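User: My collaborator sent over this chain with a note saying "see what the structure looks like." That's all I know about it. Can you take a look?
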Amino acid sequence: QVQLVESGGGLVQAGGSLRLSCAASGRTFSSYGMGWFRQAPGKEREFVAAISGGSRYYADSVNGRFTISSDNAKNTVYLQMNSLKPEDTAVYYCAARNNYYGAYDSRRVYVYWGQGTQVTVSS
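Assistant: Without extra context I'll predict from the sequence alone. Here is the result:
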């Protein structure tokens, strides 16, 4: 079993910053890749960022504002979010994949998911 626990969400004003954390645990855990997705009310869950094999990937909507990073010793992935906009408001989910097949931005390739953490950006 692999468990993912997100933290760090909250309420911020537009232009502010937040850092999300995702702690991973489980005896079978292996790091094929990690991703962040988000889902706003009434909308589909969408790709935000991913890290795999030393490469980082971002959705166009967050590129230049968000940074994904990892701390291997802590089995933790982070999402630094700067210059937040109201349209960034969503529940943010951490996800882990168990293989290298498929596109990094497709939620279908991620097997394990956290419970989500709410990010609200006010105008």
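A starting point for your reply to your collaborator: The radius of gyration is 13 Å.
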